[in-house]
Amino acid sequence: MTDHRIKSHPILEDLPEPTIPFYWKEQLFYARPDEMISSALIANGVTIFGHSPVDHSPQGIFCANGQCAQCMVIADGIPVKSCMTAVKAGMKVLPKDNLPILPDVTLPSGLAASPTPIHETEVLIIGGGPAGLSAASELGALGVQVLLIDDKDALGGKLVLQTHRFFGSSEAVFAGTRGIDIAKKIAEKVRKLDSVTVWTNATSVAIYEEKTVGVFRNNSSYQLVKPKILLVAAGAREKTLAFPGNTLPGIYGAGAFQTLVNRDLVEPCKNLFIVGGGNVGLIAGYHAIQAGIHVSGLVEAAPQCGGYKVHLDKLIRSGVPVYTSHTVVEARGKEKVEQVVVAKVDSKFKPIKGTEQVFDCDTVLIAVGLDPVNEFVNKAIEVGLPVFAAGDAQEIAEASAAIFSGKIVGNEIAKALGKFTDDIPSEWITFEEVLKSKPGRVHESKLPETYQGVYPVMHCTQEIPCDPCSSVCPKHLIVVDKQDIRSIPQFLTNDSRSCLACARCVAVCPGLAISLVDFRKQNGFGLVSLPYEQDATDLSVGQLIAVTSTEGEDLGRFPIEKIAKVPGFKGTTVVTIEAPQEIAGKISGFRLIDQPEKATFEQTVDYPDIDSDKAYICRCERITAGEIRALIKAGVKDINQIKAVTKASMGACGGKTCLSMIKRMYQAEGIPLSEVTETPIRPVFVEIPIGVLANLPTEQDGGGK
Amino acid sequence: MKNTYDVIIAGAGSVGTPTAFFLSKAGLKVLVIEPLASTGQGSNKHAIGGVRATHSDPAKILLCANSIKILSSWQNTYGDDIEWNTCGYSFVAYDAIIEKTLKDLLVLQKSLGLNIDWRDTAGIVELVPDINADHLIGGTYSPEDGSASPMKTSFVFYSHACRMGAEFHFNEKVTAVHTKGGRISQVDTNKGSYFTNTFINAAGSWSAEVSDLLGVSIPVKPDAHEAGITESIAPMVGPMVVDIRERPGSSNFYFYQHPTGKIIFCVTPNPQIWGFYEKDTSKFLPMGCQRLIEVVPKLANARVRRTWRGTYPMTPDGSPLLGKVTGVDGYILATGMCGQGFMLGPGVGEITSHLVTDSLSDQEAQSLNALRYDRAFTSKEMLK
User: Which domain CATH number covers B361?
Assistant: First the structure.
């Protein structure tokens, strides 16, 4: 049997063995305890979960987040989202190829349906990610009664997908700690607070006229929450792109990829191609490499990648080809992605005919930006329920900014409830702005030229909010301006205190951008210690590795002198080599050479015309760009009209995927959005079984419970 | 002459749009003024799509029979797919009182030529195999009734009307209607002035407000209803099923299965909720779902995908206000559809065009007379 599980991961702890038997069609598979059906299927080599009822094209995982319905399967006779439903022993899972035939139910006689229960609270927080947890922690500390709900079974939101150490401020937002560990830390703190109640597996589905919020719990019950104040910390939604082939299984967002790889430790692919050079795409690329997945390339439509340079450098050093001013124009494959076609774009981001390149890949990861999840805020405003937003739901930024945003908004809410009377310190607001700031200026790299003593070399040259190196140095020799942590860290070279060569700075740097050089031997060589966050189990002293500069320039091959761990920095290995002193300071990373370079299939061809009209805009109802563009060109300026005529946005996901693309299509046709009428987002925000809404008495076989 | 029209219609909804279509077809120069951004955006898009001639009022029966004729033949005649589906309607009886009400009405319905009959329990189970047959006595079945997409229908009436020269001004609101010598002369909006001798008020829930501009008070007031739709499931419900039993918080309840497999359902709140409410209530879904399961228990495992709320332009007796207004020449009402604007719209559009072009048949004249705005409102709608 094919096993697509990640057996060992350099950072993540092993998950339990797959021991839960279930059936896919007639085949016996095994799932890990509590594993979602989607991940269990992918782990067993299944990528096609069914076929679209509209055009019978194959469907597979897309959002892995409970938001779309592309991953629907039939589990024990009932249609479910495979990414939100855990495998049960003996479960019979079938592809959703046709419209589901509902099973018979035996309802209790008398139908004693009860009224929907109502839970009252001072504050309801939707979303247990960085912002929601942080706000809950502030509010809980002030004794405010809080109900925090999250649609997943573990708290942390997208933090639980982040294996890298975080940027930002060590003091304020756990910089230098891995996302997964930050999630645990804040969640633990929140769970200890008496006034905070946490519901996991609880999805907010509607906000009603009565200022109540409908919550779907544990896939089996429904209840109302009546808060005095609502805090929306529901994060962001990934944007996607329209190109022919964009609904093939194997095309999904970074969130889905990270969920499969980093949360569930399954290997969804062997050969990944990335679209988008922002932090999300760059980080996901590195996550793939950590999981042993080959990244065959990355395209970014802008002339430069928008993410942190240190993230980009990590990919380049790992040998990933990065093509700026390029975009994806087509995905090809029969039942799933087999190839992706990219092309150069002009200054208006239009693909240039004749510049197409074809890459073999089995997955295309789309990371082209995020939109705030705004439906809860909009509905709350509409019904007059006092509402706040924090984190990405308020403004898209880094998770570290979301933590701080949650802290500020938590205090604002406490103030609104009269539980906190001080003003929010203005430094907090300034600091939040710093954390939210886009990557800044790149300074010229200044490498030290002295071949004496021992000292760290900072390979980070870009102004980004980050300070862990300065906080871990036991001698306080690394300085980051506390007034503005975006400043480049400085090593105090002329200081009388001397570097201990402890390599804590090397290990903590989230960008893997600090090396330690040691010239104390005075033999014309320097020892260079480098951080390594990939699987180090196979590294051995004496092994030759290929060292590179920050930006991937090959600086030669040297044997490993030493492999070490720095106490307190789990997951990070520090590898030391000896290199001629002239290049020692330049060395910033390395890659293995005993593995054969995986050749990327790449060709420039006289590529046939691509019919961009064939791209799907509404993937639920399978509505093409051509159908929508024709209406836009015919003068339709009301998205409601597009919806009425084509059914775009009326499918399972309710416009969460297509509406932002439709808006971009208007802009592409030169119609400003100010002239376009938008369509309301209607509840329910995720589907709920009728039996659950009816609140029938719980019985083994009754009422969808 | 610029800005001069044969007819100006207020409202591009379920009624105004087909009316514009029939008037344009008759060769008249038509302007439709609509405050919303496109056709069908007021109440039309909230309709669930049922179209039946199975009513208790003769005029409504005839108007809807004509709507069915127009909608069921639309694709053959004009080529557009409006999702017409001859699914039929079945009013079911779980008690003797409802059985009697339904059977009594059959006489009138049949006398007006409707294809409708009584079916016993087995006959209903044949139509809806998963129906809860406990205490089910039987029900009516009218196989020629059906459903279509309100939004697509509105759009095709609009597109064809435009092709025939009708003008639609969206995002524009009627602010004044002037008369000269007792006859309609001019319509002002927030964007301009237009000249006409015929003004049709097809503003549905907003029509009383429009009529007030002419000093004519009409008894139309909106009440709020909610509906829901499920994900697609394999075919299991044949006709539109109407259950007119009273339940806590609701009177009528009805649902059907769209050709794509989705179940669309709606309840009539009891007591009625008067006013322009479009925000979802927390009561509707539990109530609607309980009623769905009561009639088809198997639906417990289908999932609700979406819910919405809209308004019915209600009149005192549940029937529309149609025809000319005494004392204001050229002022015509085509409003007060009481939640049946989509099914009445095509029929109303055609009869109104006949009224404007002075080509009413005797039967049509009779219907209009029965639906005069100043009637006594003494009858009662039996099948809401």
Answer: 3.50.50.60
User: Which tens digits make up the pLDDT trace of A429-465?
Assistant: 999 999 999 999 999 988 887 899 999 999 999 999 9
Provide CB contacts within 8 A for A99, sequence distance 6+: A53, B232, B233, B234, B235, B261
Would A261 be classed as within a structural domain?
A: yes
Cβ-contact B67, B345 below 8 angstroms? yes
What is the domain extent for residue A639?
A: 614-705
C-alpha A517/C-alpha A455 separation (Å) is: 6
Same domain, A331 and A405: no
Q: Are A105 and B300 in contact (CB under 8 A)?
A: yes
For the segment A460-481, the average pLDDT, to the nearest whole number, is: 95
CA-to-CA distance for B285 and B164, rounded, in angstroms? 43
Considering only CB atoms, which chain B residues are within 8 Å of A113?
286, 290
**Measuring CA to CA, which residue among A437, A370, A427 is closest to residue A401?**
A437
pLDDT interval class at A169 (50, 70, 90): very high
Task: Identify the pLDDT of residue B172.
Answer: 98
B118 lies in the same domain as B182:
no
Name the nearest CA neighbour of A573 among A506, A518, A501: A506
**Closest residue to B303, CB basis, from A636, A644, A687:** A687
Is the pTM higher than 0.90? yes
CB contact under 8 A, B292 and A694: yes
Q: How far apart are CA B306 and CA A208, in angstroms?
A: 13
Report how far residue A508's alpha carbon sits from residue A473's, in angstroms, rounded to the nearest whole number: 10
Amino acid at A576: T
Peptide bond into A341 cis (omega under 30): no
Q: Which ranges constitute the DSSP H helices of A647-689?
A: 658-668
**C-alpha–C-alpha distance, residues A491 and A156, integer Å:** 35
The pLDDT of residue A602 is 57
Give me the residue from B37, B232, B293 closest to A694, CB to CB: B293
User: Using CA atoms, how far apart are residues A290 and A535, in angstroms rounded to an integer?
Assistant: 7
Contact check, Cβ <8 Å, B282/A637? no
CB contact under 8 A, B280 and A209: yes
Choose one of A366, A384, A407: the last residue of a domain: A366
Residue A474 CA to residue A477 CA, distance in Å, equals 8
Q: Does A266 share its domain with A328?
A: yes
Instruction: Please indicate, yes or no, if residue B255 is contained in any of the structural domains.
Output: yes
Which DSSP state fits A25?
Answer: T
Q: How far is B265 from chain A (nearest CA, A)?
A: 12
The answer to the question of residue B380 being in a domain is: no
Predicted confidence band of residue A596 (pLDDT cuts 50, 70, 90): low
Domain match, B103 and B183 both: no
Q: What is the pLDDT of residues A73-86, one digit of tens each?
A: 999 999 999 999 99
The structure tokens listed for A135 are 């706000």
Domain count, chain A: 4
Q: Which residue of B has its CA nearest to A112?
A: B290
Provide, as residue numbers in chain B, all residues whose Cβ is less than 8 Å from the Cβ of A116: 282, 286
Closest residue to B305, CB basis, from A208, A637, A687: A687
A705 and A619 housed in the same domain = yes
Of A638, A683, A694, the CB nearest to B37: A638
- Only one residue has tokens 């939101």, namely A157
What mean pLDDT value characterizes chain B?
Answer: 96
Task: State whether B257 and B133 are in the same domain.
Answer: yes
Flag whether pLDDT at A111 surpasses 60.
Answer: no
SS3 B284: helix
ipTM of this model?
Answer: 0.95
Q: A50 in contact with B at a CB cutoff of 8 Å?
A: no
Chain Cα centroid distance, residue A106: 42
Q: Which phi-psi region, left, alpha or beta, contains residue A337 (left: φ > 0; alpha: ψ -120 to 50)?
A: beta
Is A691 in contact with B293 (Cβ distance < 8 A)?
yes
Residues A477, A359: one domain? no
* DSSP single-letter state for residue A386: -
